[in-house]
Specification:
- The protein is mainly α.
Length: 44
């Protein structure tokens, strides 16, 4: 899965959401691991 955010602030708000809280619980319950990578788009 690849997500794109307009800013770091927008990403931070997303991580505070109820949905992310539920996902964190599921990851713990099912021992799901994830890897996060940051890709920075070059400005033209």
């Amino acid at each position: 899965m690849i997500d794109k955010w307009e800013s770091q602030e927008a990403l931070d708000e997303h991580h505070k959401s109820k949905m992310m809280e539920e996902i964190a619980k599921l990851r713990e319950k099912y021992h799901i691991r994830m890897r996060v990578e940051q890709f920075v788009e070059k400005k033209k």
